[in-house]
Design goal:
19% of the residues lie in helices and 27% in strands. By secondary structure, it is of the alpha+beta class. Strands 5-6-4-1-14-13 form a six-stranded mixed sheet, with helices on one face. The chain has a six-stranded mixed sheet with strand order 7-8-9-10-12-11, covered by helices on one side. Strands 2-3 form a two-stranded antiparallel ribbon. The protein starts with a strand and ends in a 5-residue tail after the last strand.
Length: 302
């Protein structure tokens, strides 16, 4: 039962993938204005610097989310804290750390991010694209590295095999996301990139979808099935690192459900789902909610 997670940052379209490309971006500031206006509180867990994969005992501290200032994103530490706290929150939600977590809109190959994730027990694999906003960084536990393999990368996606599951981490380009046909073509392109013979078990990430059913419909249409289901189905978005907060979306205004997980229900069983806020450490670092799933493949591995 692997735990698979995704967190998108808010990068610009610069070809320079530095700290400035993800700092104080428009939609992050819009998110911060909303959550401070609504007086959201962050349940900030204890962490062990330099040790991402070790569970840390201790209570969460309820802190009001800060208003962003000019220096709020002055170092990579604040973004690294969001990642570190994600692993602690997923451990408390699922009883295990992520096997793999992808960070959208982040290219850690740039020197500005040196030391942001320094745990020797994890492998950090950047997947750069031309624009900072279309780059990815994949973080995985070295203990399960033999069960992981990159299958394909392209603009808007990186695909990994995770313990026998084919997982597409996505950031669907805006120019495609609004059209059902273009979105289907996007997922058909991913299938072709991995050879076409392996089904996509899980799609997780920033879909930029115009409505809650869009991605499910596109995937079912692409692969001539009715088996794809949204992991959020029947559930509310209640970030586990917020105090008494439920919201209608995962974007800056809390109205659009962009960040989702969609799984093949005939081939996989969803065991659990957890969402994170944009401000796990009481500092808003992105406009996207993070999420993780605990999922099981049905039947024998081929």
């Amino acid at each position: 039962m692997p735990v698979i997670a995704y967190q998108s940052f808010n990068a610009n379209s610069s070809t320079t993938h530095n700290l400035q490309s993800i700092s104080n971006q428009h939609f992050t500031k819009q998110t911060n204005a909303r959550v401070t206006r609504e007086q959201h509180g962050a349940l900030v867990l204890p962490t062990a610097p330099g040790n991402l994969v070790a569970p840390v005992e201790g209570p969460a501290h309820l802190r009001p989310i800060e208003a962003l200032g000019a220096g709020s994103h002055g170092s990579n530490t604040v973004f690294g804290t969001q990642i570190t706290l994600a692993w602690q929150n997923f451990y408390r939600s699922f009883g295990q750390m992520p096997d793999i977590m992808t960070i959208g809109e982040l290219d850690t190959s740039h020197s500005d991010f040196a030391g942001m994730i320094s745990d020797p027990n994890v492998r950090v694999s950047p997947h750069a694209n031309n624009k900072a906003s279309q780059s990815f960084t994949v973080i995985s536990q070295t203990a399960v590295a033999s069960q992981l393999a990159v299958l394909a990368t392209g603009v808007g996606y990186v695909v990994y095999s995770v313990g026998g599951l084919v997982v597409a981490f996505v950031h669907v380009p805006n120019k495609l996301a609004g059209s059902q046909g273009a979105t289907s073509t996007f997922y058909n392109g991913i299938a072709a990139a991995i050879g076409g013979s392996h089904p996509i078990h899980l799609v997780i990430g920033d879909t930029n979808q115009p409505n809650a059913a869009h991605t499910v419909m596109a995937l079912n249409s692409s692969f001539n099935t009715a088996a794809y289901r949204n992991a959020l189905e029947g559930k509310k978005i209640a970030p586990v690192d917020n105090y008494l907060v439920t919201q209608g979306g995962t974007n800056s205004t809390g109205t659009q459900i962009y960040d989702i997980a969609v799984y093949r229900s005939d081939l996989c069983a969803l065991d659990d789902l957890a969402y994170l806020s944009q401000s796990s450490g009481a500092v808003t670092v992105t406009d996207h909610c993070g999420l993780g799933v605990k999922i099981t493949r049905k039947g024998k591995l081929s």
